[in-house]
Amino acid sequence: MLPRLALVKGTLDVLVLRALARRAMHGFEVATWLEERSDGALDLDDSALYQALYRLEQRGLIAAEWGVTPNNRRARYYGLTDAGAAHLREETATWLRYAATVTGILTDPQPAV
């Protein structure tokens, strides 16, 4: 089994925004969604996730309201704002460009000099 991957600095916020682009979720749902989408490969720390949620809320990229879970528990549900959706589009484009550039460098068949 491969070791879990540490999150690259700055990626947690955009991953949280991506999760919330689908629908409003509470923190545990966000963690579960990320865990499922990564097939368990990402090393996601709960405290880092909640710090990201608070940080994104302070920046106006997500909004929160209290709700009730299917298990009849009170929880804060987070949803993407219009500013958050725009930020997600920008960050996604930047990330894809970055990943393609690094992949091109790492897979270049030319030997290093």
How would the blueprint of this fold be written?
Layout (H helix, E strand, L loop, with lengths): L4 E2 L4 H12 L2 E2 H11 L4 E2 L2 H13 L3 E7 L5 E7 L1 H25 L7
Parallel strand pairs: 1-3
Antiparallel strand pairs: 2-5, 4-5
Helix pairs in contact: 1-3, 1-4
For the structure shown, list the relevant keywords:
113 residues; alpha+beta; three-stranded antiparallel beta sheet; two-stranded parallel sheet; 4 helices; 54% helix; 18% strand; globular
Describe this entry's structure for a reader.
The chain is of the alpha+beta class and 113 residues long. The chain has four helices and five strands, in the order βαβαβαββα. The protein has helices at residues 11-22, 27-37, 46-58, 82-106, and strands spanning 5-6, 25-26, 42-43, 62-68, 74-80. The strands form two sheets. Strands 2-5-4 form a three-stranded antiparallel beta sheet. Strands 1-3 form a two-stranded parallel sheet. Helix 1 (11-22) crosses helix 3 (46-58) and helix 1 (11-22) packs across helix 4. The model has no long low-confidence stretch (mean pLDDT 93).
Put the structure in a nutshell.
With 113 residues, the chain is an alpha+beta fold. The protein has four helices and five strands; from the N terminus they run βαβαβαββα. Helix 1 (11-22) crosses helix 3 and helix 1 (11-22) packs across helix 4.
Class computed from helices, strands and strand pairing:
alpha+beta
Q: Which sequence of SSEs, written as H and E, runs from N to C?
A: EHEHEHEEH
The share of residues in helices is 40-55%
Radius of gyration (Å): 17 Å
Number of helical segments with 4 or more residues: 4
Strand order of the largest sheet: 2-5-4
Count the E strands.
5
Cα(first) to Cα(last) distance is 34 Å
User: What's the story with the biggest beta sheet?
Assistant: 3 strands, antiparallel
What value does the average pLDDT take? 93
Overall spatial form: globular
Query: Could you name the ranges where pLDDT drops below 50 across 5 or more consecutive residues?
Result: none
Portion in beta strands: 15-25%
Oligomer state equals: single chain
